[in-house]
């Protein structure tokens, strides 16, 4: 193995040390090797991690839901079209923050369904803002004719 020196902010090192103390990793070196392998495996399609027991560490440290972001893991959340209908109902009633709370509590950040729901919500919000900005139509005024 090649030895490399890297400088980290102290709070980062403190968090890594706490993970080692909690038993998540055997050592700081294992954390650094795993972290590098993990990022490279997610960034480069053809990269194969070389950390010993990589899969076991990944399964222990990174929850399954986070490893499958954007997957079709609908088992943990509500069916997507039910979510669309619920977000639409809240948006039509102007309850945008309730719709955001629903999305945040039902989906992990970055989930493709959450992204689509947020985009739908954005469109409803833009429509509501446009309606507020447009002047109200003037009532039809009947023309009166006066007889002299």
TrEMBL record:
It comes from the Archaea. Residues 127-148 are annotated as: Disordered. Residues 138-148 have a biased composition (Basic and acidic residues). This is CopG/Arc/MetJ family transcriptional regulator.
